[in-house]
Amino acid sequence: RAHRNDMENIFPFLFLGAIYSLLDPSPAVARIHFFIFCMGRIVHTVAYLLRLKAPTRSVAYGVAQLPCFSMALQILLATTPYW
C-alpha cells in the first residue's frame, strides 16, 4: 500500500522533472527541487509505515508537492510564449 502511494506521486514528479530539465534550469535550483521532493517523500513514507500522528504525513506530502507545483509553473511560463 505504501509503495502504491509512493508511485502515485513519484511518476508525475519524474515526468515534470524530465521536462523541467529540458528547460536548462540552474543546476542549484534543480537540485533544491529534487532534494525537497525526495526528503518529503522519504518522510511521508516513514510516517506512513510507522503510523505517525496526523500532521506529519500531511505536512510531508505538502512539502513534497511544492517542487512539483514550482516545476509545473516554470514549465507553463516557459511554454506560454509559444501558445
Which properties best describe this structure?
83 residues; mainly alpha; Four Helix Bundle (Hemerythrin (Met), subunit A); elongated; glutathione transferase activity; transmembrane helix
Strand runs, count: 0
Q: Helical content, roughly?
A: over 70%
CATH topology: Four Helix Bundle (Hemerythrin (Met), subunit A)
CATH homology superfamily: Membrane associated eicosanoid/glutathione metabolism-like domain
Unreliable runs: none
Biggest beta sheet summary: none
H and E order: HHH
Which class best fits the helix and strand makeup? mainly alpha
Could you name the CATH class? Answer: Mainly Alpha
Give the mean pLDDT: 94
Rg from Cα: 14 Å
Task: Based on the coordinates given, report the CATH architecture.
Answer: Up-down Bundle
Distance between the termini: 40 Å
The fraction of residues in strands falls at: under 5%
Count of DSSP-assigned helices: 3
Taken together, the total number of domains comes to: 1
- Give the CA-based shape: elongated
- Oligomeric grouping of the chains: single chain
Describe the structure.
Its EC number is 2.5.1.18, 5.3.99.3. One of its GO terms (molecular function) is oxidoreductase activity. This is Prostaglandin E synthase. It is found in: Cytoplasm, Perinuclear region; Membrane. This protein has three helices and no strands. It is mostly helical and 83 residues long. It is elongated. Helix 1 (2-22) packs antiparallel against helix 2. Helices cover 86% and strands 0% of the residues.
